[in-house]
Every structure is written in structure tokens, then in C-alpha cells.
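Office hours follow-up: a student asked to see two folded examples consecutively, so here they are.
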Amino acid sequence: MALEALLLLAALMWPCAENLYANIVCSLDWMMIQVVPSTPSGHQYIFHDELSLGMGCPVTRIQTYVYDFVYPVYECGIRTQVVSEDTILFQTELYYNPRDPSCDCEKIPLECSTTRKSVWLTPVSTDEIKLNPSPFMADFQTTPEELGLLSSN
């Protein structure tokens, strides 16, 4: 698998929510789920407070046509499984708790995998990038008096 992250498009089949669409993206550190709050028929709109990720994590960003859940992979009860030497699988759930009391709460499992060979983690050769030393720290030296001023005595 040459992709940095495996993108999954899930069509969530919920009786009271018709079909919801979610896009899942992950890296070694983050998981982002984007949920489209309107159903394809346009008959129902899902409110942000009706959705939660994993162990009760709320929507992190509300946009007109999409809700974002962006969390580190160690939060919200996101589970990590090493699939191979280079591939990691993340698993969690999306919960739908409708305001309508005639509808039942729903839970849908979500998965996303990524590789440890991410292009973001590839080391850059020091021959390619030359950084000039900072003019602020190049000749920085302190005197004992200055150090005394900074102490907590």
C-alpha cells in the first residue's frame, strides 16, 4: 500500500438518519472524520450535538455542509492495532443520539489505516537545506549577575 493514509468513505445506514456519509483520514498521530449532516434525500438534517466520536468526544468544527471530528489517536478511546511492520489500523465508533425520541441511538464502527513510511516522516538530507545560525543566539552569554536575576531566590 503506497498511500500515506487509507481514505475510507463510509455510507452509514441508519433507519432514522437515512444515509449519512463520512470521510475518514488518519496519520500516525491524528484521526479526522468528516460527516455530512444532511441526508442525500434532503429530508433530514443531523445536528452536531446528535453525533459523538468514541467515548463521547464532540464535533470539533462545525461547517455548513460538514462536521469535523479531529482528535489525536490516543484520545476518545481510539484503538490502535499493528497490522504489519509498516501498517497501523485505528478503530473507533461514531454515535448518533437523535433528538427525536422515536428514533433509537445508533453506533457505527469506523476504521482507518496508515503506514509508518509516511512522506511526512521521511528525513530530509542536511545537504539540501542550509540554515543560517540565529543572530539572536549566536553570541549569547550570560553573566553571574544576570543568572542571579533569573533565579527564584
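And the second, which I mentioned at the end of office hours:
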Amino acid sequence: MGKSYPTVSEEYQKAVEKVKRKLRGLIAEKNCAPLMLRLAWHSAGTFDVSTKTGGPFGTMRFKSEQAHEANNGLEIAVRLLEPIKEQFPILSFADFYQLAGVVAVEITGGPEIPFHPGREDKPEPPQEGRLPDATKGSDHLRDVFVKHMGLSDSDIAALSGGHTLGRCHKERSGFEGPWTTNPLIFDNSYFKELLSGEKEGLLQLPSDKALLSDNVFRPYVEKYAADEDAFFADYEVAHLKLSELGFAEA
């Protein structure tokens, strides 16, 4: 489906560029790229294609959405971003949180995700329970990403590679540890580690292993492990789609 992006003012566009620079500084200083990517994903991943509710529309600013079990720890991201947001009241929270995700990928060596401003903030958060559960397999992944968000199998596989950044924290998710040996670099090592089997100190969630046991997902894992450019190309498409769910629909 084509997109029809809204036109924003020159002042708004300038604010976007300035905020990008401020975000680069913050993320470099605090080493918080994984947290910012998670904030952007969890903001967007609540979209439901049938009811057109949820999605990347700034509702993570509400304490009630931060309190959803899947969002444990994201109040830290919101708090870290507050001083920048206060300097740029013109920017919607919706654009701001998605821009933080774009910068997080770029500053850690990942692909440059196109960014189209103009998302409006919704007045209330979506109901809890729309985000993926890491303890479940490929049927659940398809239920969340394909049936509810309207994404594809290749989007699921590519977005899973975002786990190249960051780690799990026991107090937030019940799991502990990073997926890769360098959790602050965006590359294709998530797929390489997945194929090389479990290692002490590195994490493989049930939802990660599901990519290996599923005969549609596994070829993507093998392709991305062998070809980082192919992973980056597909990731860019998938991240853009996720960040614009329900936005600018023609």
C-alpha cells in the first residue's frame, strides 16, 4: 500500500534535524542505543491492522503504557529523552520516539532508516498484551507481526536481527544476557550466533530458536548470516514499515 506523507513546516523539519544531532550525542554518551531501539519498536508494535488502533503515536509518554509488563525498563528511556524533548516542544512524541530508534540503529553502524515526520500523538495508550512474547514460537510471532501488525515473514526475520543490539535483564524480562559478543554494534552477528548454537554467556530466546526450526524463517537466517548487506537492506524496509504502521496511509 502506498504512503501519502503529510507536509510539515520548515520549522518542524529543522527541529527534526536538530533533535537527530542531540539524540546522537545522548546515545553516544549513555550507550543507550538498545534501549532507544526497544522504545521505538514497542511504541510501534502495538498497532492492530483490523481496528487501526495502537501504533507509533507517542502513547509511551503515558505512565500506564510504560507499566505494561512488556515495557519494563522503558520508563528509563522516556526519562533520558525528556531533557531533549523539552527543548523541542514543536515535535510530536510520536515522531520523537521513532526518530530515537532510527538514530540508535545508525549510530551503532546499522543501515540508515528513512524518516518521514508528521505522526500525531494519540490521546490514550492501547490495551496491554499486543507485543510479542519471547517465550513463544513461530505461530505466535506470525499472529503478532502478520495478523495484527500486517507485516511479513521476511519482516519478522529481519527485525529479529535487531537483537544484535542490547541484552536482556532478569528484572525486566526474566531472561539475562546479550545475544552477541558486542551488544553495542549493529551487524549480522545475531544470525551467525544463532546458527553456531548456544554458547555460555550468550542468549537464545525461544522466539529466536523458532527462526531456526521454521522452514520459512530459517533460509532468511542463513542468508543474513552469510550476507550482511542483504540483512541491512531487508532490515531497513522492515524497520521503516514498523515505524510507520497506521501512519500516512494513502
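Two things to take away from it. The chain has twelve helices and two strands. Residues 58 and 94 are 4 Å apart (CA to CA).
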